[in-house]
Here is the input.
Amino acid sequence: MLTLHRAALVLPDPADPTAPPLSDGAVLVRDGRIAALGPYRALAAAHPGARLRDWGDALLTAGLRNPYGHWLLECAYHPDPREGVGDEPVFGGLAGTTDEARCGASARRGLQRMLGFGVTAVAGPFERASVRTAVARSGLAALPGSVGDEGPLDPLAVLPLGAAAHGRLTDDGPADFAVFALTAGQGAAAAGGDALRPGGCLATVLAGRLVYRRR
Here is the structure.
């Protein structure tokens, strides 16, 4: 099935300040890969049977890499909503524990919350078997190079988009990307990522699947 994702701005390579954004652009997805990038009208005309996801006044770009994966998934504890203590990571909440089931459940909740911030890759290493399993099943790319320090679930809380982005969008590349809200007047500044606000993720797509959508 073909799916066409349209957004007011499409930024294929957020790490390259010279790469221009596509105004009223779109990404065509087939079988978990990017089949084409380009102007929305041209792609829609060429593929009239494609399912449309119109994200409106938003920025579609490469997903984010969270560099604090080791700390967030193996040291911090992600509470169950039923515990009634909020959803922020609890520093040191897994220190000294040997309960792999508890660690795995915490990691799954943490990974799900990362998806809500546009994260498509997370940095390890991951030493616990339960955490490695949770990461593998999440669909997020597991990368080396975790900074090892305490950090937020949302990379945009501490990094500009160009530094936080994981790779770029290319023809026949993996359909891993995120959509972020724009506010009136952001325009070209947002295309460079400077005006994106933390917590502004509208949707996250992994291998062509919509894995998060803001309600």
